[in-house]
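Problem 12. The chain below contains 170 residues. Write out its predicted structure in C-alpha coordinate notation.
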Amino acid sequence: MLTARELAEQLFELAQRLAAHAVLGFISFWQGDYVAVWTHCEQGSACIDPTALPFQALYHIAVSGGLCRAIAAHTRWCLGYPAHALRLVQEALAQAQVLAHPYSLTFAQHYAAYLHHRRRDAPATQAQAEALLTLAKVHEFPLFTAFGTCLRAWPCSARARRPCWRRERC
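Solution.
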Protein backbone atom coordinates (compact mmCIF):
# COMPACT_ATOMS: atom_id res chain seq x y z
CA MET A 1 0.00 0.00 0.00
CA LEU A 2 1.33 3.41 -0.95
CA THR A 3 1.76 6.09 1.66
CA ALA A 4 0.42 9.60 1.23
CA ARG A 5 3.95 10.84 0.52
CA GLU A 6 4.51 8.22 -2.20
CA LEU A 7 1.22 9.14 -3.83
CA ALA A 8 2.12 12.83 -3.65
CA GLU A 9 5.52 12.14 -5.24
CA GLN A 10 3.84 10.21 -8.07
CA LEU A 11 1.39 13.05 -8.58
CA PHE A 12 4.22 15.58 -8.64
CA GLU A 13 6.19 13.61 -11.24
CA LEU A 14 3.13 13.10 -13.41
CA ALA A 15 2.12 16.76 -13.14
CA GLN A 16 5.60 17.86 -14.16
CA ARG A 17 5.61 15.57 -17.22
CA LEU A 18 2.15 16.63 -18.35
CA ALA A 19 2.78 20.33 -17.76
CA ALA A 20 6.12 20.09 -19.58
CA HIS A 21 4.50 18.43 -22.61
CA ALA A 22 1.68 21.00 -22.62
CA VAL A 23 4.07 23.95 -22.47
CA LEU A 24 6.45 22.46 -25.06
CA GLY A 25 3.47 21.80 -27.33
CA PHE A 26 2.29 25.39 -26.89
CA ILE A 27 5.73 26.84 -27.68
CA SER A 28 6.22 24.50 -30.64
CA PHE A 29 2.85 25.61 -32.05
CA TRP A 30 3.88 29.25 -32.12
CA GLN A 31 7.21 28.27 -33.66
CA GLY A 32 5.38 26.41 -36.43
CA ASP A 33 6.84 23.00 -35.53
CA TYR A 34 3.57 21.08 -35.89
CA VAL A 35 5.19 17.66 -35.69
CA ALA A 36 6.62 18.52 -32.27
CA VAL A 37 3.24 19.95 -31.20
CA TRP A 38 1.43 16.76 -32.09
CA THR A 39 4.09 14.63 -30.37
CA HIS A 40 3.97 16.66 -27.14
CA CYS A 41 0.17 16.83 -27.09
CA GLU A 42 -0.12 13.07 -27.61
CA GLN A 43 2.47 12.35 -24.91
CA GLY A 44 0.90 14.87 -22.57
CA SER A 45 -2.58 13.45 -23.08
CA ALA A 46 -1.21 9.96 -22.45
CA CYS A 47 -0.16 11.11 -18.97
CA ILE A 48 -3.78 11.77 -18.02
CA ASP A 49 -5.43 9.03 -16.03
CA PRO A 50 -9.07 9.98 -15.45
CA THR A 51 -9.51 6.93 -13.20
CA ALA A 52 -6.78 8.16 -10.84
CA LEU A 53 -7.44 9.88 -7.58
CA PRO A 54 -9.99 12.67 -8.14
CA PHE A 55 -7.62 15.55 -7.39
CA GLN A 56 -4.99 14.09 -9.72
CA ALA A 57 -7.44 13.65 -12.58
CA LEU A 58 -8.93 17.10 -12.01
CA TYR A 59 -5.56 18.83 -12.10
CA HIS A 60 -4.29 17.05 -15.17
CA ILE A 61 -7.43 17.27 -17.25
CA ALA A 62 -8.34 20.81 -16.28
CA VAL A 63 -4.98 22.51 -16.54
CA SER A 64 -2.77 20.71 -19.01
CA GLY A 65 -5.15 18.31 -20.73
CA GLY A 66 -7.30 21.16 -22.02
CA LEU A 67 -4.23 23.03 -23.18
CA CYS A 68 -3.02 19.96 -25.08
CA ARG A 69 -6.40 19.46 -26.79
CA ALA A 70 -6.81 23.13 -27.71
CA ILE A 71 -3.32 23.40 -29.19
CA ALA A 72 -3.70 20.04 -30.92
CA ALA A 73 -6.92 21.31 -32.50
CA HIS A 74 -5.18 24.30 -34.03
CA THR A 75 -2.31 22.13 -35.15
CA ARG A 76 -4.71 19.86 -36.98
CA TRP A 77 -6.25 22.95 -38.60
CA CYS A 78 -2.84 24.15 -39.78
CA LEU A 79 -2.08 20.69 -41.17
CA GLY A 80 -5.31 20.63 -43.17
CA TYR A 81 -7.64 18.56 -40.98
CA PRO A 82 -10.49 20.98 -40.18
CA ALA A 83 -13.01 18.35 -39.06
CA HIS A 84 -10.53 16.80 -36.63
CA ALA A 85 -9.60 20.29 -35.39
CA LEU A 86 -13.24 21.10 -34.68
CA ARG A 87 -13.74 17.81 -32.83
CA LEU A 88 -10.66 18.39 -30.66
CA VAL A 89 -11.65 21.93 -29.72
CA GLN A 90 -15.17 20.72 -28.86
CA GLU A 91 -13.63 18.03 -26.62
CA ALA A 92 -11.46 20.65 -24.89
CA LEU A 93 -14.52 22.83 -24.31
CA ALA A 94 -16.67 19.96 -23.06
CA GLN A 95 -13.95 18.80 -20.69
CA ALA A 96 -13.43 22.29 -19.30
CA GLN A 97 -17.19 22.84 -18.88
CA VAL A 98 -17.61 19.62 -16.91
CA LEU A 99 -14.77 20.47 -14.55
CA ALA A 100 -15.67 24.18 -14.28
CA HIS A 101 -12.03 25.20 -13.72
CA PRO A 102 -12.25 28.96 -14.52
CA TYR A 103 -8.93 29.48 -16.29
CA SER A 104 -9.13 26.24 -18.27
CA LEU A 105 -12.68 27.00 -19.34
CA THR A 106 -11.70 30.51 -20.43
CA PHE A 107 -8.65 29.17 -22.28
CA ALA A 108 -10.73 26.53 -24.08
CA GLN A 109 -13.40 29.11 -24.92
CA HIS A 110 -10.75 31.37 -26.45
CA TYR A 111 -9.35 28.61 -28.62
CA ALA A 112 -12.84 27.58 -29.70
CA ALA A 113 -13.66 31.15 -30.75
CA TYR A 114 -10.32 31.44 -32.53
CA LEU A 115 -10.85 28.18 -34.43
CA HIS A 116 -14.31 29.30 -35.56
CA HIS A 117 -12.75 32.57 -36.69
CA ARG A 118 -10.18 30.64 -38.73
CA ARG A 119 -13.06 28.64 -40.23
CA ARG A 120 -14.76 31.93 -41.16
CA ASP A 121 -17.88 30.88 -39.28
CA ALA A 122 -19.15 34.28 -38.12
CA PRO A 123 -22.15 33.12 -36.01
CA ALA A 124 -20.09 30.49 -34.15
CA THR A 125 -17.22 32.96 -33.66
CA GLN A 126 -19.57 35.54 -32.22
CA ALA A 127 -21.25 33.03 -29.88
CA GLN A 128 -17.94 31.68 -28.61
CA ALA A 129 -16.50 35.20 -28.26
CA GLU A 130 -19.53 36.30 -26.20
CA ALA A 131 -19.09 33.29 -23.91
CA LEU A 132 -15.37 34.05 -23.67
CA LEU A 133 -16.02 37.68 -22.75
CA THR A 134 -18.50 36.70 -20.06
CA LEU A 135 -16.01 34.30 -18.46
CA ALA A 136 -13.06 36.65 -18.82
CA LYS A 137 -14.91 39.53 -17.17
CA VAL A 138 -16.33 37.43 -14.33
CA HIS A 139 -12.91 35.95 -13.50
CA GLU A 140 -10.97 39.14 -14.28
CA PHE A 141 -8.72 37.72 -17.01
CA PRO A 142 -7.77 40.91 -18.92
CA LEU A 143 -5.86 39.18 -21.71
CA PHE A 144 -8.84 36.96 -22.51
CA THR A 145 -11.13 40.01 -22.30
CA ALA A 146 -9.01 41.59 -25.03
CA PHE A 147 -9.04 38.41 -27.12
CA GLY A 148 -12.80 38.10 -26.75
CA THR A 149 -13.34 41.73 -27.73
CA CYS A 150 -11.30 41.29 -30.90
CA LEU A 151 -12.96 38.02 -31.82
CA ARG A 152 -16.43 39.42 -31.15
CA ALA A 153 -15.72 42.36 -33.45
CA TRP A 154 -14.69 40.20 -36.41
CA PRO A 155 -18.20 39.03 -37.43
CA CYS A 156 -19.39 42.66 -37.43
CA SER A 157 -16.46 43.77 -39.55
CA ALA A 158 -17.04 40.85 -41.92
CA ARG A 159 -20.69 41.91 -42.33
CA ALA A 160 -19.64 45.54 -42.87
CA ARG A 161 -17.64 44.50 -45.93
CA ARG A 162 -20.77 43.12 -47.61
CA PRO A 163 -22.69 45.31 -50.05
CA CYS A 164 -24.95 47.68 -48.12
CA TRP A 165 -28.18 45.94 -49.23
CA ARG A 166 -26.95 42.66 -47.64
CA ARG A 167 -25.77 44.02 -44.27
CA GLU A 168 -27.22 43.04 -40.94
CA ARG A 169 -26.89 45.20 -37.88
CA CYS A 170 -24.32 44.19 -35.25
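Discussion. The two ends are 62 Å apart (CA to CA). Students who got a different answer should revisit the alignment rule from Section 12.3.
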